[in-house]
UniProtKB/TrEMBL annotation:
CDD domains: EcCorA-like_u1. It is found in: Cell inner membrane. Belongs to the CorA metal ion transporter (MIT) (TC 1.A.35) family. PANTHER family: CORA FAMILY METAL ION TRANSPORTER (EUROFUNG), ZINC TRANSPORT PROTEIN ZNTB. It catalyses: Mg(2+)(in) = Mg(2+)(out). It holds the Pfam family CorA. The chain crosses the membrane at residues 297-317, 329-349. It comes from the Bacteria. This is Magnesium transport protein CorA. The lineage of its organism: Bacteria, Pseudomonadati, Pseudomonadota, Alphaproteobacteria, Hyphomicrobiales. Residues 21-32 have a biased composition (Basic and acidic residues).
Amino acid sequence: MTARCRCVDSVPTRTPRNPRPHAEPSRPEGAVEHAATPDGTDLPPHAIWIDLANPTAEEAELVEETTGLRVPSRQALSEVESSSRLRRLRNGLSLSTPMITFDQADSQLKPLGFVLTKDRLITVRFHDLRAYAEVKARLTNGDGPATRSIEIFLLLMEELVDSLADALEEMGADLDALSTRVFDFDAGARPGARPGDSRAPRRRDIALRRILRSVGRRGKALGKLRASLLGLQRIVPFVAAECGSFAEGDADARFETIQRDIASLDEFETRLTENVQFLLDATLGLINMEQNNTFRILTVVSVVGVPPTLIASMYGMNFKHMPELDWLYGYPYGLALIATSALVPMIYFKVKGWF
């Protein structure tokens, strides 16, 4: 499947999406968006922002020939060491970070790359991100400057941080709902359950399994959100320090704001992680209680069964002279003694509240 290369130009024109666009008047600093073709006819050499979504080797080579900048491969963007994720180029910076796919059903970490110079920004990604669509919409509508690469980079960082904040807020709401499920879990009753319903223990077991899986999924997603947040936390101060020579206007203030936002999200993520661990411990505690209930029932059954077994074994001995052997009421006496020896422990355990 051929990827689509998106380019943003800062000229004051707006071009509709078609293979052969024609310029028409628009607001200042409007965005021009091109759908690149493999032969490169629609890739403007003066584009400020080139967004490569799942690029093929041919598209990467086309961008390299047009811009003179090397487009990092997916393998290079997946490197985990800091020296590979934050690199200085001859005339700019090469940056990469893992970014969560924001898919609640099956979130994944995929690499996200930036090549930033004074005059150009190249982004390389391998999944759809709402932040990119938001930035393109803002540029198209004139909501935000698009005259320099650093300004577009700041817009992307702000939208990415906002996406992570929204994901963490949703995670917090999910954990609150999950906390209600955990602490309102009644292991002894369910709506419509009848005393002695043999299916109740199995249903409780299934409910606890589902809760445990829910806690595990949220812990897994939270770990990926933390990895994404940590990547941005490293990129932003690095770019702020390295791009001071061509960062003008309010760029420094925006960098500081982004760093403060990331720091606050990091604290919020830490609290969510502690909440996940707390819910995990609580769920495991409920499972241990269920296991203890099972063992308690087995213990009661075994204790109740010991005295009748002892009495039956005594009167089952084949001795010639036994006092009750020729007694008319010997058999009823033995049955009554067996029943009494079973009822006494059951009454005792019932009074103690064991069952």
